[in-house]
Input
Amino acid sequence: MLTMAALRRLAGLQRLLGLPVRAVSSGQTANSTVSARIVPVSRPLDVVEWHPMEQKEEKSPFIKNPDFHGFNEDPVVDVQNMRAAFFFGISICLVLGTAFLYYLPDHKMHQWARREAERRIKQRAEQGLPILSSYYFDPSKIVLPPEEEE
Output
């Protein structure tokens, strides 16, 4: 006679060990004990289990496919994936990426600043003024406060 808790512990231990278990009980009695017996379940003979210490013998993919590119074991899918990777990697990224970077707008407006400086130099030369002046503003147009207020 086993109690329900002992029966559960025994079944849990057998499941933990990987043993299939089927419990057959005859019902409960008045003092909460169960008459049960454990019946092992037979495994089919055709089931082959892999042991973690066993190593499967792997063949080199070059034996099956001498033109192996490393994308897939199947030769047809391997060639398709290789072509797709090189198309997107070379054509799209390198060619179109370089063209995109070349035609980006002027970063920090360096080219605009040079064009504007050349335009102003040409304008000052036409007016007969020096290219550079020591005054940022024309001193004749600056209005100063009277000296008495200081």
The chain has a mean pLDDT of 78. Residues 67-131 form one domain. The first helix runs from residue 4 to 16.
